[in-house]
Amino acid sequence: MTIALPRPAGTRQHGRPARNTGIDLVRAWCVVGVVTLHALMVGVTVTDAGPLFANASDGSWWITTLSWVLQVMPLFFVIGGFAGFTAYRRARQRGGSAAGFVASRIHRLLLPAVCTIGVVAIVLLALLASGVAGELVGIAGYRFGQPLWFLGVFLLCQVLLPIMVAAHERAPWAALALLVLGAVVVDAVRIATGADAVGILNLAVIWLALQQVGFFLADGRIAALTRRTRAVVGLVAAGALVLSFVLGIHSPDLIANINPPTTALLLVGVAHTMLVSLMSRRLTSWSENRFGAALRAFITPRAMTIYLWHMPVLLAMAGACAVFAIASGFALPAPSSPEWWITRPLWLATAFGLTALVAAALAGVEARTAPPATTSIRRLVSASALGVVAVALLLVVGASPATAALAVAMMLLALRLAGETPDHPRSAPWPMRSAGIDANRIRAIENANTTGNV
């Protein structure tokens, strides 16, 4: 007896799978949510000592409530798992290799990062050369580097995706259970010892677990559940989250649960995943109306560019406000004050508009076709490690002209290692040779891998 899982939404019975436009719309809204949250966190005032840049949400009354709406990172990784699973499956159906997939992901994520970090390094150097206080430049570099944790963790999850897909295909529930158990153990040790540094381990475990949930969404296992079951699972996850707040296990501020990541994020991800699954038809409908189609058409091919550039845009806006206030004597409203909230619609509109302009101008970097990939596992492991370490450098030390330049150099080396070089001539894996697929066909297959979206 065999059990046939239903085909995931957005697939055709024959031929190439269709894009799941509902999932694309969810990802687009996640990007909008991230930009909105970070824009509201930017606080700038001018004191007698000069400009003061701070996190406007620190100690605020509104961040906890807002975090329940805008904490979309768990869903982001679920969607990343969905997209990665479908892209990898499509590549395998065309005869592509795991190495080609990993190389394309390294290219897709690191190439736009090189562009952004390189420009930031030049700007920071120019600010120092123009006489801007080193402390202010350091704060700007620190604020720029903070959101880059996502790049490092997402890169790690994506390069491990073929391995995690293999585990999912062999023992889906066991693979997910082991990751969840690992996250629970890390959380328990952190809480028992009070050592927050232990929670750093969950930077890998929790986000990999959420990516694994995305595999269940992609292969139709979640859709195979009855609507009642999905609703119950989502409500239980939400109820467990609230109970964890009451018991003092997790902070009700979901943003606080991201540094270090806690198991609260797993519950958020499960609840959001069940909601997305229950609303799949409506999401598809929304994604096909004029606004939804325009939103996903703009954001989908530019998701990483938007993520990388929105913080430099926000920092530039904050700097411009400080310069204006100093030159004109105009008093900037204190963060969280009534006057500050009145100005937020204009602030958000400007942030969205400028970020969209930058993304439109630089989208070609992200869309650039990946070069032929190396088949050397050692080179791919080295490339992945270099990319993750480069991001970790900016997070731990902070972004300065020197650290940013070093990070760019490491990423460029990672891109070179992931690609084919004359010193490492390409040799097709044996299944491709036996099938008579020539080198040009192999390159076409692996370049097609880049069509999978972040």
Strand content: under 5%
The structural class is mainly alpha
Q: How far is the first residue's CA from the last residue's CA? A: 37 Å
Instruction: Summarize the main sheet.
Output: 2 strands, antiparallel
Element string (H = helix, E = strand):
HEEHHHHHHHHHHHHHHHHHHH
- Please state the overall shape, judged from the principal axes of the Cα atoms: globular
Kindly provide the radius of gyration, computed on alpha-carbon positions and rounded to a whole number of angstroms: 23 Å
How many strands appear in the DSSP assignment? 2
The spatial strand order of the largest sheet comes to 1-2
Uncertain runs: 1-16, 424-454
Estimate the mean pLDDT confidence: 88
**Percent helix among the residues?**
over 70%
Q: What is the count of DSSP helices, taking H or I runs of 4+ residues? A: 20
Write the layout of secondary structure elements.
Layout: H1 21-41, E1 42-47, E2 50-55, H2 63-70, H3 73-93, H4 98-129, H5 134-145, H6 149-159, H7 161-170, H8 172-193, H9 202-218, H10 221-224, H11 227-246, H12 264-278, H13 280-287, H14 290-299, H15 303-328, H16 338-367, H17 377-396, H18 401-418, H19 430-434, H20 439-448
